[in-house]
């Protein structure tokens, strides 16, 4: 997960008056954003420990992570619309209460299915709280205080994304995975108690008054159907009636969603913003970047811990190499954004992501931890190089009065990119592992346990560690076969991230600056980017 909240350095504004705000309110909004973003990024690291404790298969782990992000994405825009109409204070506080209670349920989860449902409720709470927090930063402050608040809010987002791998790894290693969610409970309770006293009620009296319910239903169900087909294709069979039905349903529902948005009086997605080539291409590139980022984190977290035997702390520390690469390069990228053609930053950035990720796919079946440092740093440098200019360019043409709407759409694309990355990497990973393992386990001379293992993989899905319970004669050979098949499958899955990164470089060609602002470093609201 890359440490940019989707605003680039564009300062958002919304018409309307709001009461003066102070440091207390800013602290509440920063903490709310921190725990939401932390939860989005952190749960990847403890997933292997969760599977070990609660049981389940890789597709279940994918749902345990993806339920949060998917629900978050689907309900963010309608929640923002409700806040604009009925007041952001009640939507924000209700969202934080829901998020906090769901986090407590996650910490107490007795099964992977229970955890997945609780994660979905967490996502709904996040969808209510996060857009309201962002809108209040831009309406409850004014002048220099607003600039300071916007910068601090972006800082909270970035710090959460930067610290999530190592902090969640430390908590899982030193305590247990439940305490990752307990942190949300403590922070959420603090936000609610302070927010009741400090959060003002702001709204947008000039925005749309109706909620696009058909758009919410069509879009949400369409995205869910597509995610289900990708994640469960291996377990149920890609040509099985359920998977075919879900693919057809996804195509039909998403097609109807597009038609609905083109005809609705108050569409969920602002059609005027999509008319901007840079807004559309910039957000598409941003989504592709998040696909590659979370796909990489998701696959490597499991590989490092389950197959290579590292602790959650070591896995988090190794994945921090990506963050380190991004942090080193990001200041250079930020200083050049607005001063040069962004394609000179974004295209090389995506190509570095592709190169670093491809390097990882060339590893042996038993790579040492030192092997990962260089390719992860290269990929991280790519993320740092493309992230800020992509986000800033996407919002460059957004008028000030529509800046909150533009940022919310960008946030949804960001979340959908995460969802797609985890779902596709998981689907390819499972599919290739089952195929590789069945081929290898079908060789002559293997003990009878090989046939049983092959049958289990075909019918029950891929468990967290498929070789964990292998015993008896030939067990070591079977474990090596499974390990090699699993590692090779991870490499194949990561090729999807490579392909998406290359696609991101191609999309970046559309980010060419307009003729009238090639030398203009101002942002959408007229402030300079320096």
TrEMBL record:
Q: Please identify the protein, giving its name as recorded.
A: MFS transporter
**Bilayer-spanning residue ranges:** 21-51, 63-80, 92-118, 124-143, 155-173, 179-199, 211-231, 243-260, 281-300, 312-332, 344-362, 368-385, 411-429, 489-511
Organism lineage reads as: Bacteria, Bacillati, Actinomycetota, Actinomycetes, Streptosporangiales
Q: Name one GO molecular function term.
A: transmembrane transporter activity
Q: What is the superkingdom listed in this entry's lineage?
A: Bacteria
Alphabetical GO CC annotations of the entry are: plasma membrane
Q: How does it sit in the membrane?
A: Multi-pass membrane protein
User: Does the entry feature the keyword Transmembrane helix, yes or no?
Assistant: yes
Which UniProt keywords are given for this protein, alphabetically ordered? Cell membrane, Membrane, Transmembrane, Transmembrane helix, Transport
UniProt keyword Acyltransferase, yes or no: no
Q: Which organism is it from?
A: Actinomadura darangshiensis
Subcellular location(s): the record lists:
Cell membrane
* Residues covered by the Major facilitator superfamily (MFS) profile domain: 25-516
């Amino acid at each position: 997960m890359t440490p940019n909240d989707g605003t680039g350095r564009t300062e958002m504004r919304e018409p309307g008056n709001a009461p003066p705000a102070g440091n207390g309110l800013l602290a509440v909004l920063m903490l709310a954003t921190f725990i939401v973003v932390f939860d989005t990024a952190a749960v990847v690291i403890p997933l292997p420990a969760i599977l070990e404790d609660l049981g389940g298969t890789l597709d279940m782990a994918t749902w345990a992570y993806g339920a949060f992000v998917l629900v978050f994405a689907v309900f963010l825009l309608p929640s923002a619309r409700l806040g604009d109409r009925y007041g952001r204070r009640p939507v924000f506080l209700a969202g934080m209460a829901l998020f906090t209670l769901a986090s407590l349920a996650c910490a107490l989860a007795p099964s992977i299915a229970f955890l997945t449902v609780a994660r979905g409720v967490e996502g709904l709470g996040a969808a209510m709280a996060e857009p309201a927090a962002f809108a209040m930063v831009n309406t409850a402050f004014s002048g220099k205080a607003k600039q300071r608040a916007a910068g601090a809010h972006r800082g909270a987002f970035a710090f959460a994304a930067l610290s999530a791998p190592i902090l969640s790894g430390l908590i899982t290693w030193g305590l247990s995975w439940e305490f990752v969610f307990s942190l949300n409970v403590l922070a959420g309770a603090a936000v609610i108690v302070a927010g009741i006293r400090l959060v003002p009620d702001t709204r947008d009296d000039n925005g749309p008054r109706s909620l696009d319910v058909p758009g919410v239903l069509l879009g949400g169900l369409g995205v869910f159907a597509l995610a289900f087909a990708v994640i469960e294709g291996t377990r149920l069979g890609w040509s099985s009636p359920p998977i075919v039905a879900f693919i057809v349903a996804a195509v039909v529902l998403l097609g109807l969603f597009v038609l609905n948005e083109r005809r609705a009086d108050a569409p969920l997605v602002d059609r005027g913003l999509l008319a901007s080539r840079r807004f559309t291409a910039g957000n598409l590139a941003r989504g592709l970047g998040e696909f590659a980022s979370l796909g990489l984190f998701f696959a490597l977290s499991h590989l490092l811990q389950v197959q290579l035997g590292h602790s959650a702390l070591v896995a988090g520390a190794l994945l921090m190499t990506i963050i380190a690469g991004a942090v080193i390069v990001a200041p250079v990228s930020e200083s050049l954004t607005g001063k040069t053609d962004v394609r000179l930053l974004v295209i090389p950035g995506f190509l570095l992501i592709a190169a670093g990720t491809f390097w990882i796919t060339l590893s042996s079946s038993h790579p040492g931890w030192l092997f990962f440092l260089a390719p992860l740093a290269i990929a991280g440098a790519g993320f740092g190089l493309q992230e800020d200019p992509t986000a800033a360019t996407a919002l460059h043409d957004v008028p000030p009065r529509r800046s909150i709407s533009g940022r919310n759409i960008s946030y949804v694309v960001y979340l959908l990119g995460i969802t797609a990355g985890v779902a596709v990497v998981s689907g390819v990973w499972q599919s290739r592992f089952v195929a590789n393992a069945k081929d290898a386990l079908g060789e002559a001379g293997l003990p009878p346990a090989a046939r049983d293992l092959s049958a289990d993989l075909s019918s029950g899905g891929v468990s967290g560690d498929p070789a964990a319970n292998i015993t008896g004669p030939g067990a070591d050979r079977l474990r090596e076969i499974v390990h090699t098949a699993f590692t090779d499958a991870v490499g194949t899955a990561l090729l999807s991230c490579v392909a998406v990164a290359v696609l991101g470089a191609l999309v970046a060609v559309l980010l060419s600056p307009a003729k009238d602002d090639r030398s203009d470093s101002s942002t959408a609201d007229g402030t300079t980017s320096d």
